[in-house]
From TrEMBL:
Domain of life: Eukaryota
Name by which UniProt lists this protein: Endoglucanase
PROSITE patterns linked to this entry: GH9_2, GH9_3
Entry similarity comment: Belongs to the glycosyl hydrolase 9 (cellulase E) family.
Organism for this UniProt entry: Populus euphratica (Euphrates poplar)
Protease is among the record's keywords: no
GO terms assigned for molecular function: cellulase activity
UniProt keyword annotation of Signal present: yes
């Protein structure tokens, strides 16, 4: 545990530096972004399920879910808890993995000494997704844990005794949305590991191909097949067409197999290409798909991809104040605002797309066409920076919404493991009902979930640092994943 001890000392030093620094100025340095990057990746260690490794840095966590899947004769140990609960939801976990991988693909060269940790965060998930995808033919395991029972308890993962039911999609009960997203995650990750671990990369890609074929061949929404288990938690409101195109796009990028290009050309126009009124999230992949595919047009001026460049422009222009097609909402303090619940998930995903599109445009001398006006890559970067800086503390409340960063950040995070005394501080089991005293306590969380980005403030920039206000105070893996790429980008800027 020498590594963990050394890291704890480093963490203490970082906290001292932050507590002595005022964030009333609007400027963050590249070192600030680098520190936030380290924390944003560290957060994923707090979400780990399974047997923790010897180099685990958030040492208040312990092993959990070590028998997941065993009652069903399948090994489903590992993966991530999605947010503040103890359920392993396949759809948001796969999306998280895709976005972590995309962050490394686009901005890994700026991650410097954090690239190893970023890859470890991806691999913790892909090791699990591989098991879920290959354990049984024509089957994808998509969830571990009964969410209704889990949400009736407030207990740390190390103690959980709620049913660890296993849910799957099959030929008879399809789930094209979750399967295609899993294929996207495995394909994107295969690109990340292509040079550093060729055999693992090949294994990921082959699994991605099989899962995508399963998703496309047996079409249907997992919300229909597994309604009571996945709804209302992670219903696929957008349907499964967007995931099929998203999955095919990542397989095209990862495999360079003409089959996937043909699939995109044949099916793209029927899978949401004409609709620009949307946001990028674990549920809706349309904006991300279009920006991913627009790169082909920008690099090769390939005619069949011009559609994706046009619709990427429409999406991006809707976010930029002053353009003819501007329609996004922002708080008085300048935060992109989409929803009352976990709004920062949309901020981080949108920010990532702004920066990725700026990179694609900048590398090819392009601009976003907004009606009769144009928007440059520099303008997109400036808009993204406002969102990143707001999250880190440049906002009316002078509150950093990343736990552990800055001199003022959320203390009452809606998260079981963080809010209940750790197994080291309190070795005796804390039961399902006994844990609620910690949910309702006014004391700060005893375990700092370093790097966690919470749901964030409301549309008037107001934030209730209240554990019971889960809409504002709950973190999630899919909030952090795209922010990893954004922080890497700004950490490389002087």
């Amino acid at each position: 545990m020498a590594i963990a001890t050394a890291f704890s000392l480093k963490l203490q030093i970082l906290f001292i530096i932050f507590c002595c620094r005022s964030y009333f100025s609007t400027a963050f340095t590249s070192q600030d972004y680098a520190d936030a990057l380290e924390m944003s990746i560290l957060f994923f260690e707090g979400q780990r399920s399974g047997k923790l490794p010897s180099n685990q840095r958030l040492t208040w966590r312990g092993d959990s879910g070590l028998s997941d899947g065993s009652a069903y004769h399948v090994n489903l140990v590992g993966g991530y808890y999605d947010a503040g609960d103890n359920v392993k939801f396949g759809l948001p976990m796969a999306f998280t993995t895709t976005l972590l991988a995309w962050s490394v693909i686009e901005f890994g060269s700026s991650m410097q000494n954090q690239i190893t940790n970023a890859k470890a965060a991806i691999r913790w998930s892909t090791d699990y997704l591989l098991k879920a995808a290959t354990a049984t033919p024509d089957t994808l395991y998509v969830q571990v844990g009964d969410p209704n029972m889990d949400h009736r308890c407030w207990e740390r993962p190390e103690d959980m005794d709620t049913p660890r039911n296993v849910y799957k999609v099959t030929i008879q009960n399809p789930g094209s949305d979750v399967a295609a997203e899993t294929a996207a995650a495995l394909a994107a990750a295969s690109i990340v590991f292509k040079e550093s671990d060729t055999s693992y990369s090949t294994e990921l890609l082959h699994a991605a191909m099989k899962v995508f074929d399963f998703a496309d061949r047996y079409r249907g929404s997992y919300s229909d097949s597994l309604n009571s288990a996945v709804c209302p938690f992670y219903c696929s409101y957008s349907g499964y067409q967007d995931e099929l195109l998203w999955g095919a796009s990542w397989l095209h990028k990862a495999s360079l197999n003409g089959t996937y290009l043909a699939y995109i050309q044949s099916n793209g126009h029927t899978m949401g290409s004409e609709d620009d009124d949307y946001s990028f999230s674990w549920d809706d992949k349309r904006p991300g798909t279009k920006i991913l595919l627009s790169k082909e047009f920008l690099e090769k001026t390939t005619e069949e991809f011009q559609l994706y460049k046009s619709h990427s422009d429409n999406y991006i222009c809707s976010l930029i104040p002053g353009t003819p097609s501007f329609q996004a909402q922002y708080t008085p303090g300048g935060l992109f605002y989409k929803a009352t619940e976990s709004n920062l998930q949309y901020v981080t995903s949108t920010t990532f797309l702004l920066l990725t599109y700026a990179k694609y445009l900048g590398s090819n001398g392009g601009v976003a066409k907004c009606g009769g006006s144009t928007v440059t890559a520099e303008s997109l970067i400036a808009q993204a920076k406002k969102q990143v800086d707001y999250i880190l503390g440049d906002n009316p409340a002078k509150m950093s919404y990343m736990v552990g960063f800055g001199n003022k950040y959320p203390q009452h995070v809606h998260h079981r493991g963080s809010s209940v005394p750790s197994i080291h501080a309190h070795p005796n089991r804390i039961s399902c009902n006994d844990g609620f005293q910690y949910l309702y306590s006014s004391s700060p969380n005893p375990n700092v979930l370093v790097g966690a980005i919470v749901g964030g403030p409301d549309n008037r920039d107001h934030f209730a640092d209240d554990r019971n206000s889960y809409q504002q105070s709950e973190p999630a893996t899919y909030i952090n994943a795209p922010f990893v790429g954004a922080l890497a980008f700004f950490s490389a800027k002087n």
